[in-house]
Amino acid sequence: MKKPSKLARNGSTWGLAMVAPTIIGLLILNIVPFFQTIYMSFSKTKAFGAYEFCGFANYIEMFQTPEFWKATWNSVYFCILTVPIGVFLSLLVAVLLNAKIKGKTVFRAIYFLPMVVAPAAVAMVWKWIFNTEYGIINTLFGANVRWLTDPNVVMITCAIVAIWSAIGYDAVLLLSGIQNISKSLYEAAGMDGASKVRQFFTITLPMVSPTLFVVLIMRLMASLKVYDLIYMMVEQTNPALTSAQSLMYLFYRESFIAGNKGYASAIVIWTVLLIGLVTIVQFIGQKKWVNYEV
Amino acid sequence: MRMRTKIIAMILVIALALGLAGCGSSGGSSNGKINLTFQIWDVAQKAGMEAMCAAYSEKNPNVTIEVQVTSWNEYWTKLEAAATSGKMPDIFWMHTNELLKYADNGILADCTDIIETDKFSEVSLSNVSGSNGTYYGVPKDKDTVGLVYNKEMFDAAGVAYPTADWTWDDLVSASEKIYNATGKYGYMAYADEQLGYWNFVYQAGGYILNEDKTQAGYTLPATADAMKFYIELQKNPWCPDQNYFAETAPGTAFFSEKGAMFLEGNWNILPELQNYPDMVGKWDVAVLPKCPNPASGDGRATISNGLCYATAANNKNLETVKDVLKFFGSEEGQRIQGESGAAIPAYQGLEQTWVGCFKDYPIDVQCFIDMFDYSIQSVNNASRPEWKSKVSDELLKIYSGQVELEAGLANMQSIVDAASAK
């Protein structure tokens, strides 16, 4: 093997030095705490950082708690509600924003705006919009839907807000994918007499599929980890709390309110496994539909 | 995507740098000067606390105290993390909900030698006591819960204003009349402990925790009857149900003139007068109605809580900090607090300094002081953080009809008993 030249060695040293802040940051802030969390999930924690190893006790307790299974289902249900519809709408918006319409940069900005607003502020405003007695939706339609307190509706309400706030970001990602598609493909298709709808399904969709795949993975992960939105929308005095409590919400309550950090860590590890499983399934499934040929 | 990773990496690095810079800045002392930090959660009391600190610095020019406000929701997360890493603020407020957890784990400094014990009530002193009876903080204030009512709605319905002789029956009949005459809600009873069912339970002669705080009393007949009364108030047309309160806080409903009465703690009265200037003059406060047929006692009770000033046992400037705490607990310190309107001083005999802050408002807050005669210490024990949210979940299940009242109370009983037994 040839010895690397001095220049190359110098370069790699410099390279390492340049990425060191990031690597150290990731190590301290992400990697080390991740392993600590794993260890903590096998410990009984007491106040002020004291803990002792307790084997699988947390997991056994967790799997026997109906609240935990309810929270798991709530997180999955939230995914089912938000991901397909959300990604579909984002794609639709992306295609429309790519069309030749007047003031499309303005529309692009408008669609992206919800992403810029803090989730807490978004939730506060939507909470007023959905208020049963004084909210604008019920007043406008003369309806009496208990958007935030009916156990069967509350998750749908949260999903609507989640989709609304994510569309802009996903659409911009997809838009960049769509704009990479060569115009000549559309010209050729148009020449051959393919309709716009046909062009979408045979050109746009396959060509944008790698981006779509990324968006899908990110959206699924974010949905399984949903916390801030539900925390802000559904207060702890809400009778529908158990029907809206996601895994991360349950984690927050166990960890920071009840001070049960070991048990809370077990919930986190379970969520990590769940997300991992879903992501693996997606990576296997993508072979069937994602097109990497240009 | 790479751009995103880059940005995330940059944010992480910046966060890291800030984190490092943040270390080692507290409790600093340079050239004889001592800088102390003082952590509180109520922004409405910041000015009062700063006035107190300024008075101390005037006498002790080498000490400066910086008041920092962290919102209630983050306060305890932050304080516990600080305690775990041994970097607590020099002085901080302590709440009865959490005091025992901190005291019993040896986090708080013993303050026995700096408290003028004859100047504070028994309730105030037990609010700062650890499980071993040692005082782990200097009493700051004391509070009571009163009945806030809308005078205009009472007038419109032709009902006399609440008096000290009012019983639960009067509360119900007044609510009914107001609802029938004006269409507004009467007394708004919602799922809450200190500003809700606890008051009713103790008025009826029941209890939430027994004397030595080892066992709950949810299944006692007196407790169960009071809770049944309180929870079933929402079945009346004049009281909104819990779904309503989940979206609209009773205070919001009251100050939007949707309802005539609700229970409020004295610490909220001044901010409410300031925040709702249009409502000033339209409302007043009264003592809590009494239970007409208590199992024991005279049917009177109000929950009284009290905060305290505390410091860490391992504080580097413990001598100085304790001197500051001593000043905060002295007549002078407590007078400054009272006159700022922040809270009723725990120091006995200074209650009127707080009442005096309301002289420009058409409201009679004396009733909050009168209620100290029969006030009950706010419920707590060392495992309270553990059972608090579980009991609250169970209460919500009763409200939403998922659990019958008796079964729900039995569940609450076993939740508290199990947590307290550890």
Describe the 3D structure.
The complex is a heterodimer of chains A (294) and B (422). In chain A, 75% of the residues lie in helices and 2% in strands. Chain A has 294 residues and is mostly helical. Chain A folds into 2 domains: 6-53, no CATH class; 66-289, MetI-like (MetI-like fold, Orthogonal Bundle). Chain A has a two-stranded antiparallel sheet with strand order 1-2. The longest helix of chain A is centred in the first third of the chain and has 35 residues, at 6-40. By secondary structure, chain B is an alpha/beta fold. Chain B contains 18 helices and 14 strands. Chain B has helices spanning 2-22, 46-59, 72-84, 96-104, 122-127, 151-157, 168-182, 193-203, 221-232, 242-247, 250-255, 269-275, 318-328, 331-339, 351-356, 366-370, 384-399, 405-421; strands at 29-30, 33-40, 63-69, 91-94, 138-139, 141-142, 145-150, 185-187, 259-265, 283-286, 302-304, 308-310, 344-345, 375-377. In chain B, strands 1, 2, 3, 4, 5 and 12 form a 6-stranded mixed beta sheet that branches. The longest helix of chain B has 21 residues, at 2-22. Chains A and B meet through helix 1 and helix 12 of A and helix 1, helix 3, helix 10 and helix 17 of B.
